[in-house]
């Protein structure tokens, strides 16, 4: 049996990896490529649905995810899953990255979807088709492509295909019609924007390169089965000139007789073999040639329906899943298909083309025979075509080339060998031998540009021999060829020859080839020095071990290339490694001898630290680079030698350099600089001394400057540190130097601003100098309070002008101390007064001035000054205080001043008066409300009347509390004056009230009663004051009850309700009764008798006296509570008050007072219509056997509960009354029972 032309394998059984049988179907199992199978299922016993993803390319590994979705499809080759839920919600997830890529919600249900490319999904809804690029951030939601045709209405969509250019789309659907499955398709052209309805079950797109065509033709192939037959159609879409037109193909599809209901379900086109794979519902597979439609093979591969298929990733076959769960793959068997076709002579041409198209073995003999035959016939063009198209190029040999070369060239025509090469170039890439044979004539004809074109197109088989051939004509092109051929040595040589030095190292690294770089550097440097340095640097950067750095430097130096050598070494030595110390030294030597400025810049960048510092220092000194020499020298002798050349050293550097020296060496160098040339070096020495003053020590620097007797040096040095120093000696030295330099302004400034000097020492120095300008001395004495010394010194030296300067310009606030000092030296009063008049009063602290003068008992001296100050508008309180004291001492009508003036300090003046005149102190304290001071002075001097009047006028509860405290030994004396004089004389009720409240708060009831009787019982403004009368009575009720009765009779403006209630609260019931009786509040008075005195008889007598209904009602209630029923009912009758009828009925009934109750109820019925009243009255009639009255009552208008009364009468044995009750309401049942009891049978 001949071998099959296909490879057919079962890749996987889904049941074997945990897939349930019911989950294997079109709706729950999807296959988008030969990488993944995706299944939705719900495991048995689990409420959680899941998605299983089987990786067919990874050992059938299964990935499970707890996902609930309507549909799930995997990307072709990435772990990206597309999920659909609710028909409209679409989500795309990257399972590997565990992230969401995109999501959207459609406006209508998606009925079918699939990946049509590696980036995009096709979505089919009931009305439209959409594309959605999930990797394009700009495409947030799917883009509508076209609307569905009516021919798909009612169809189940089973596929959607798009061509590679996304210009053509086809939707495939099936429907049940007249007992068979009908296929419907909609083919849509994006460019034309139109659709075509086609009857068909399966469709696909493919590309085919026709013979002699410059480009591929786009083909659309579809299959259908109708009632009359089945056809496979292959048509061209988007024909492009100058391609030949593809002739439409329509071939029959064979179905076995028993497969009457079978139909195509899927179709895939193999791009590799140009073969159509057609799968039917019953599991048959058909293979057709895409170009001719010829049937290659047909057989059944599955007894179960294959419901989904996809192309494999190599484009050579298909993979599919059947309902049994088998994952099946089918592809062309390259080793058997050509022999299989050749079994049928009719398929010879197909086998011939298929072998050429796909490079399949099995047709070599056929090709060899045809090639030989064509050559023999002289059909060289077709012979060349046959050789060019031979399977796997087995005819493309040197022998074939030689045979074509031996064919003579026809005049006016292209030689056969060039025609052959042209065909090979159209087909693809030449091999190395073909390329060599073609290159020779092309270069001979000076058509190098053709080689460049073919090189760019990748159609030349490059070799070292080809590069050698081209190098003569074009080194750059040869370099490309060498690279393609892998001839690394010759590539580098070509790069060097063409000057592309910068490419050498990257190329060497990329191919792993290591040339002799030192030789290359030498070669490049001779050709191009700049490139040589750059080349060497690049190599050293990448891998310094590739070159010998010393040898490279020798190369540069041998050609005098110091600059290039420097650049190279700077780059190489940038890491500053210890082992490169000799190279660092060599770099610096080279530049110090040839380019000192470059060496200076290198040293300034501080790039290196491992060179020979002593050697470099000597070279720097020889080159005149003193700063660099100093930086490198370490021995003191060399340092001193260099540092003396200050004219060659920038001062800033020199100053900074001293910071590196030891203290001793630094001072030695400064001494040497002063000794060698003090004029030239003094400024530098001063600046250095300023900067390192803390390091060297001010004392040693001062000693150094004093050694050379330079006051100028001292002045400028100390001037630089005096503002920051805390050394008193330094400041003193500066004051000395500045004084000797005549810089008195600076002396004045330091004396004023500095805190770091000994004021006594400076004061004495300045006094000794006998300066013409005493301002520095004045400042020192002013700051450190040497005022007395200053005044004595200036007064002794008759420098009155300086005293005036001091108090007028320097510190007027020191005027009091100056005046005191002048008084101490018995200065003439006129001078003192003149000095005072020369100073603005506003700037003099009057208090201090008064204190100074007062302490010397010369206060009257100030009177003219103070009066003048006052006249000038100065309103300082101190002025008034001083005037008050003067008026008091001089007895110049002080009472008037103290009473009328509001500007003095009452506390100060009062204190001043205490020992002189307590009355004046009282006036001052009273004016200033200095309460405690006033209380003390009046108490000490027994001025209680004045104190009482002040307290009453002051009206401050806190002050009252203070004086009425038990701790006040003078309280009784004060109270006597308050009661006898202060309060009776007051006309302000508010102030009196505050005083009264103070007595209350102090818990002084006896004194309070005494006070109140004084102002109420005796004629006064407050005799009729209701609040005070209330207070008097309340206080008496609490502390002296015997007075209350008298107050009740004598007072009329108190509040009876409050007072009576207070009496009740303290058990004074008779007084409360009297108050209510006097106020005609009879009901409240009765209440006191009933509730508190508990005398009903007195209450009844009082009711007889006043004869008021409300009083009788109150008495009646008390009598009722005392079970004096008859008296109570009588009282209610006198009050005509039936309001308490429920209690009266209850108590009277229990007491058997029916007759009295009848009277009360009759009275009550006059004003009330209540059922309890009428019911009680009716039953009273029953109990008292007043039957006629009962009958009359019941006949009249009433609201009595008659039946209830009848039942009660019956129960209690009042049968006659019960008879009357039942008869009145016609209750014959209960009446008959009653009559039986009465033995009344008529």
UniProtKB/TrEMBL annotation:
Ranges occupied by CHCR repeats: 540-686, 689-831, 837-976, 983-1128, 1132-1242
InterPro entries reported in the protein's UniProt record: ARM-type_fold, CHCR, Clathrin_H-chain/VPS_repeat, Clathrin_H-chain_N, Clathrin_H-chain_propeller_rpt, Clathrin_heavy_chain, TPR-like_helical_dom_sf
Gene3D superfamilies in alphabetical order: Clathrin heavy-chain terminal domain, Tetratricopeptide repeat domain
GO molecular function terms noted in the UniProt entry: clathrin light chain binding; structural molecule activity
GO biological process per UniProt: Golgi to endosome transport; intracellular protein transport; receptor-mediated endocytosis
GO-annotated cellular components: actin cortical patch; clathrin coat of coated pit; clathrin coat of trans-Golgi network vesicle; clathrin complex; cytosol
Protein name per its UniProtKB record: Clathrin heavy chain
Protein source organism: Hortaea werneckii
